[in-house]
Write a structure and sequence with these properties.
46% of the residues lie in helices and 14% in strands. With 226 residues, the protein is of the alpha/beta class. It has a six-stranded parallel β-sheet, sandwiched between helices.
Length: 226
């Protein structure tokens, strides 16, 4: 199965290694993440669309299934809307689709590198390992700017979502305070034919997701869409 795995903001291809070990597929570092340089104009979803195009070309794929965690899920949905003939299905997990001013302020409070070093030093060290000791703070600031732009001008509008022609499975943790189950359900109502799966007792971080609960649902979904 042609499967492309897209990580979340501040993540890298390594974030989805456990999923890749179970299902195979190709995981990529999105622009500005991992070993990828931050574009001069900042991190934008247009760069992620180009990243996905590049992955298709490198793999020689005409079509593929997309799985995206958090920010990667937003990129996957946007790509499916723009390239309906290339995407067989989309699965998102923990993706924040609906943005409010309050929600943006909450996310931005958690995207202050100096605060992160003080409050969550282990996480800050993991970001340094993933993105480089001398550049992880730049990545955090670039993502904060990207989120601010997305909140001001959402890309997945009702009109854009109407162009998504493939099956879509939208997953969210019951205790996810970033994506928020109620918001996820509301967004899914605007995506024709989409399904929603709420993982019980699950917060936002991918590392906290119980794969033994998630994977059977993914298998069943991919079996139907193969």
């Amino acid at each position: 199965m042609n499967l492309l795995l897209l990580h979340g903001a501040l993540g890298s291809a390594a974030q989805l290694r456990a999923l890749q070990e179970r299902f195979g597929g190709v995981a990529i570092d999105l622009s500005g993440h991992g070993g990828r340089e931050i574009p001069s104009e900042g991190i934008r979803f247009e760069h992620f669309i180009a990243d996905i195009d590049r992955a298709f070309d490198e793999q020689g794929w005409r079509e593929a299934h997309l799985f995206g965690y958090s920010m990667g899920g937003y990129a996957a949905m946007l790509y499916a809307a723009r390239n309906p003939g290339r995407v067989k299905s989309v699965i998102t997990l923990g993706t924040k689709f609906l943005w409010t001013e309050e929600g943006l302020k909450k996310e931005l409070r958690m995207l202050d590198p100096e605060v992160m070093e003080q409050k969550v030093p282990a996480f800050a060290r993991s970001l340094a390992d993933a993105h480089g000791t001398n550049r992880w703070k730049e990545v955090v600031r670039a993502i904060a700017a990207s989120m601010s732009g997305l909140a001001a001008s959402p890309l997945l509008t009702t009109e854009v979502c109407a162009r998504i022609a493939c099956p879509v499975l939208i997953c969210v943790g019951e205790k996810d305070t970033t994506a928020v189950p109620a918001d996820t359900q509301e967004f899914a109502e605007g995506v024709q034919g989409s399904e929603v799966f709420v993982l019980p007792d699950t917060p936002h971080p991918f590392e906290k997701v119980e794969l033994d609960i998630l994977l059977p649902r993914l298998r069943a979904f991919w079996r139907r869409t193969a």
